[in-house]
Amino acid sequence: MRLFVALEIPEPVRREVRRRMAGLRERLPRARWVDPDVLHLTLLFLGEVAPERAAELAGRLGEAFAAYPALPLRLAGGGTFPAGRPARVAWVGVAGPPELAPLQAAVARAAREVLEPAAGREAERPFQAHVTLARCPSPWPRGAAEKFGAAFPGEIGPPFVADRGVLVESRLSPRGPRYRHLAELPLAGVAAEMPGAAGEQPA
Q1: Within 13 Å of residue 202, how many CA atoms lie on the same side as its CB?
Q2: What's the pTM value of the predicted model, to 2 decimals?
Q3: What local confidence, expressed as pLDDT, does residue 152 receive?
Q4: Which has the closest alpha carbon to 9: 38, 44, 46?
Q5: What are the domain boundaries of the chain?
Q6: Among 17, 47, 88, 147, which lies 20 to 30 A Cα-Cα from 117?
């Protein structure tokens, strides 16, 4: 099972991202664009996980999320990785409270306890909150990266509150990855519910 942990982006924000993306693809070099319908903020990419570890992993992740409050977030600004070099990933930034980084670190620690050493390697990477919009098989030149950033000035859509995380399975297919929620991970003070999207979603 190919898994990751994320915070979801609500529809009003996705709608604004979709609006700004309209026509942008035709003005930029080829890339693999993310479907705005399934935008998310990845907290930790876990890669391949044995199915029998999923329940234990979800339980430990749930404990990590429950120690932190709901997070007021907003999307703001666009950029590319790596900075100052031909772009391989195009993204929009995520602004949030100071608790966001410690939450991500707690998620990484919880996963590492269950999945060592794979999660440990991921946990060593510095966390920069962002939402990926495109991946560039052939790196974009500077002009293309600047054109992308110019399409996402200032705040993007309304602010929102993230009150839970999700443990997601990503199944690769010729049409791109398809996502299935394995568990919802409420933040402090939020009642647990059944996953809202048990079926597969196209990426």
Answers
A1: 8
A2: 0.86
A3: 95
A4: 38
A5: 2-202
A6: 88
For residue 119, pLDDT beyond 60: no
Distance between CA atoms of 23 and 43, rounded to whole angstroms?
A: 29
CATH, range 2-202: 3.90.1140.10
* Residue carrying the six token digits 């690769």: 172
Query: Do the beta carbons of residue 105 and residue 113 sit within 8 Å?
Result: no
Per-residue pLDDT of 5-60, as tens digits, reads 999 999 999 999 999 998 898 999 999 999 999 999 999 999 999 999 999 999 99
Nearest to 6 by CA among 188, 180, 190: 180
Structure tokens at 178: 């398809």
Question: Which residues, 6 or more positions from 36, have their beta carbon under 8 angstroms from its beta carbon?
Answer: 14, 15, 17, 18, 21
Q: Are strands 32-33 and 87-95 parallel, antiparallel or unpaired?
A: unpaired
Residues in the chain: 203
State the DSSP string of the chain.
-EEEEEEE--HHHHHHHHHHHTTTGGGS---EEPPGGG-EEEEEEEEE--GGGHHHHHHHHHHHHHTS--EEEEEEEEEEESTTSSEEEEEEEEE--TTHHHHHHHHHHHHHHHHTTHHHHHHTSPP--EEEEEEEEEEEPHHHHHHHHHTS-SEEEEEEEE-EEEEEEEE--TT--EEEEEEEEEPTT------TT-S-EE-
